[in-house]
What does this fold into?
Amino acid sequence: MEATEKHQHRSEGRFRLALAQLNPTVGDVGGNAALVRKARADAAKAGAHLVVFSELVLTGYPPEDLVLRPSLLDAVEREIAALAALTGDDGPGLLVTAPARVTGGVANAVFLLDDGRTQAVRTKHELPNYGVFDEKRVFVAGPVSEPIAFRGLKLGVPICEDVWFATCPGALARAGAQILIVPNGSPFELGKVAQRIALAKARADETGLAMVYLNQVGGQDELVFDGGSFATDSTGKPVAALPAWEESVAVIDFRSGPNGLEPLASPTTPLSHLERRVTRAFADGDIHPSDTDLAEIYAAMVLGLRDYVGKNRFPGVVLGLSGGIDSALSAAVAVDALGADKVHCVRLPSRFTSEASQDDADDCARLLGVALLTLPIVEGVTALESTLAPLFGNRERDITEENLQARVRGVLLMALSNKFGWMVLTTGNKSEMSVGYATLYGDMCGGYSVLKDVYKTTVFALSAWRNAHRPADALGPNGVVIPEPIIVKPPTAELRPNQTDQDSLPPYDVLDSILIGLIEREQPVDAIAAQGHPIATVRRVQHMLYLAEYKRRQAPPGVKISPRNLGRDRRFPITNAFRDL
It folds into this structure.
């Protein structure tokens, strides 16, 4: 049943909409409903007529196969009924998002709750089935949506993917919708902000309607949602915006215009929130990110780790601090995300570890304000080599003995994790993970990685950026947190005398340029070689990339940063005989 017109929807031709940009936890239906209640109370104090929430706010997004459990749907229905009853007080109505049982399965839905009951339900029509999304697996597609009547207004409420195509917005406009209010679960990746703005402009050009783009904020496994909700007018021009990377409940006023409802600018929703965030996504093969890119990447890593640790109730993290740049940057992110008291760093020196590396690790720990343990691995490695000596005989030392060192380190870090409950923070970057320059059950062990989708050249840039910038929400110190010697020295695993990464890999600027072509763009080998790289090098990197797929399948999750992370964005077979000619 559609809404009645019991309530007066506006004063002097105005409509006040509250945008609830929240950080729900997947599966915590009761806790998420409490967030909805609090947001409604805040919106009521601000004089809002209606509150809109991001996609699937009651279950959190994405719920994946959890949404197929009848008991979860039972919990959702109980909370929908309770929230509907809450709206019987003549306060704001609610556009609450949640899964809904429908004929043939479960739909991704939005519920209009007002006047003490559910007034209307609309379901998502376009189900994304690419990249990190596989909604066709768990949801039934709904029909093309119709406007929702609310206190004398006709609201178009397409859900997320529905506005990435023209069908639903066009149908809503033809049916008399006065505005498009869009609940989203849009994860962060470089370049996404510009895509969203262009999307709103395209839909405005087609429909002549203003749009409210309401996004989730927070981390969920490998995905990070950046918030950054905004409103555009009927020409597609941004008028108001919410902050990125944090929860926010803010109101936007609308007035009636010739094409429907038009948003009004307000100092509480300044456009600066949006304008400073437009980033590139490996534009024109450039592997050097801008300061804006670096700020966005760092914010994503901090929020992703903070929520992964917090929502999974780990008391803190532990990581090996080698004196190298990857572990130093990982430690800095961890301190900024969790606070120094929840970050436990460990030096794990072998007989090949230089005094300079140990000193660099000590300096980094001091700058970050974290305690630093030292657990030498020499005795453990010697014991394993002695055990294996009868089998290995006179064979020369090779990568086997190098990997033993990495695996002893992994055993010690996992022991600390088991004993104290700390999550092991893995420190490998995207360049290494792409070509398999990592040891299974060694430096790959752990529960999460903030660098998994960050190329090595960006690791260097991020380290220098963090030394010059302290994010507003960072819990770590101001000033330099990564010693300069760590940034400028040649990277090395120190698993044999005088080793550097470039003994096994092309220079990182070359490697990353090739990997961006192979991964982000799926370019053929000859096209990448035409950019100035030796074709033999490109073929070798492609071979390493394909060969390492089995390692990546066993890697811990990590924050998605790029348009194609090494996970659900890119699903290659492990057994793969194909190579470019």
About this structure: Residues 399-420 form the longest helix (22 residues). Residues 27 and 59 are 5 Å apart (CA to CA). Residues 1-6 have pLDDT under 50 and may be disordered. The longest strand covers residues 93-102.
